[in-house]
Amino acid sequence: MVELGAEPGRITAATGPAVCGRCYEVPAPLRAEVAERVPAAYAETSWGTPALDVPEGVAAQLAAAGVTALTRSPVCTLESADHYSYRREQRTGRLASYVWLGSEQ
């Protein structure tokens, strides 16, 4: 978006429900590899095993890019029975995302 002329300070970002760092268990080598690039993603599960906090990592990357307007969903998809989670249900589902460029008038 920046390459197309967007100013990071004018970008509004919103992240939807996602598995949280307390629940997203990963192998220790994967956590180390991700955290090397995005330290904010380093996490530990509520039961003490290596984890990744993807929402926190995304927020940190947006902040580093200069995006100051961020709305984050507080919902953990693994913890919420109202949201789809492959990790919980072990079957596929459907997700959607969208991005758009608007102009001020």
Automatic annotation (TrEMBL):
Organism superkingdom: Bacteria
Known catalytic reactions: adenosine + phosphate = alpha-D-ribose 1-phosphate + adenine; inosine + phosphate = alpha-D-ribose 1-phosphate + hypoxanthine; S-methyl-5'-thioadenosine + phosphate = 5-(methylsulfanyl)-alpha-D-ribose 1-phosphate + adenine; adenosine + H2O + H(+) = inosine + NH4(+)
Keyword field: Copper, Hydrolase, Metal-binding, Transferase, Zinc
Any single Pfam family the record assigns to this protein: Cu-oxidase_4
Gene3D superfamilies: CNF1/YfiH-like putative cysteine hydrolases
Physiological role: Purine nucleoside enzyme that catalyzes the phosphorolysis of adenosine and inosine nucleosides, yielding D-ribose 1-phosphate and the respective free bases, adenine and hypoxanthine. Also catalyzes the phosphorolysis of S-methyl-5'-thioadenosine into adenine and S-methyl-5-thio-alpha-D-ribose 1-phosphate. Also has adenosine deaminase activity.
Homology family: Belongs to the purine nucleoside phosphorylase YfiH/LACC1 family.
Protein name: Laccase domain-containing protein
Organism: Kitasatospora putterlickiae
Organism phylogeny: Bacteria, Bacillati, Actinomycetota, Actinomycetes, Kitasatosporales
